[in-house]
């Protein structure tokens, strides 16, 4: 696979994303459904704590990627949906820290939504990975 990161522009370096990622000849793709901060018991953990939910959501994402033989560095697109956009933007350094720790520079979307599938969820993360 050949990957070319295109044009991070003004905020890309600070926020850890690319405006575009060109993938030529990938051998494998992984499309990852929304991941949230679910504890081992299946319940949403860390109610009201956006930073802790970011951390656990990324942990769950890394677990899923790993089960398919991928790593966070293979993620080429990520989408973050939140019911509390001001809280997530104020704590976005938690997201950029997770991306940096995983050597991940995806294209990205951050969107505020009215509701997620569980009222205790503050965010949900979707991803696309390629190798």
From TrEMBL:
Q: Name one Pfam family in it.
A: Ribonuc_L-PSP
What InterPro entries does this protein map onto?
RutC-like_sf, YjgF/YER057c/UK114
Q: Per its UniProt entry, which superkingdom is the organism in?
A: Bacteria
> What is the protein's given name?
Enamine deaminase RidA
Q: Which organism is it from?
A: Actinomadura montaniterrae
């Amino acid at each position: 696979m050949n990957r070319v990161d295109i044009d991070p522009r003004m905020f890309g370096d600070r926020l850890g994303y690319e405006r575009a990622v060109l993938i030529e000849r990938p051998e494998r793709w992984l499309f990852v459904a929304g991941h949230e901060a679910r504890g081992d018991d299946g319940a949403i953990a860390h109610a009201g704590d956006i930073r802790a939910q970011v951390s656990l959501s990324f942990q769950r994402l890394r677990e899923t990627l790993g089960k398919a033989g991928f790593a966070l560095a293979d993620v080429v697109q990520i989408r973050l949906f939140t019911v509390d956009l001001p809280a997530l933007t104020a704590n976005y350094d938690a997201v950029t820290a997770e991306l940096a720790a995983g050597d991940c520079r995806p294209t990205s979307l951050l969107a505020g939504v009215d509701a997620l599938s569980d009222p205790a969820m503050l965010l949900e993360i979707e991803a696309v990975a390629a190798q």
